[in-house]
Amino acid sequence: MTERKILLLYKSKYGSTRKYAQMLKAKLPCEAVDLDAQRVPDLAPYDAVVLAGALYASDIAGIGVLRKHYGRVADKKLAILCVGASPYEEEAFSQMKARNLKQDLKDIPVFYARGAWDEDKMTLKDKILCKMLEKHIKSRDPATYEPWMKAFAEAMGQHRDWVDEDYLQPLIDYLKDS
Ligand SMILES: Cc1cc2nc3c(=O)[nH]c(=O)nc-3n(C[C@H](O)[C@H](O)[C@H](O)COP(=O)(O)O)c2cc1C
Question: Is the pLDDT reported for residue 100 higher than 90?
């Protein structure tokens, strides 16, 4: 069987999604395109398209690009890789998918990889947003924390990096599968 031609579109603000894009490229031949620096190429030659985007306030970075070009990729093998700081939790993941993937996009398989957390690297706007979240979380009883709140409370003020290529295996298996 000839190898599937894969296009990997990625969007990364602080670098962890970029690291996953590089790891994926090293494991599986693909064309990696940084959506912040490059234009979306002609999609016709590709058999599969993967969007890798970090989660910011539960929104998948770059999802708008997939929505915009959906008409030209609908017949291809599609996948989304979300990168977030929270540990994987099924209920929260389902809610995040329902929020981001509406109508045509709703059946695209979504994979998860844990990224990093470093407040020192954040933009002022993100720092302010995190401060607001911190205030909101601290006003609650820890026994009622949702998983992302627990992870946020633990990560606050810390430098954490959970990037691990093992997270990519389910996506790699899916892309290799006919
Ligand atoms: C403003 C802001 C909002 C975030 N929201 C979420 C979130 O909703 N869920 C989550 O799991 N991680 C969230 N994160 C953590 C990022 O997804 C995480 O740091 C990720 O590794 C960033 O990827 P990047 O390095 O490719 O930009 C947020 C980070 C920031 C700065």
Answer: yes
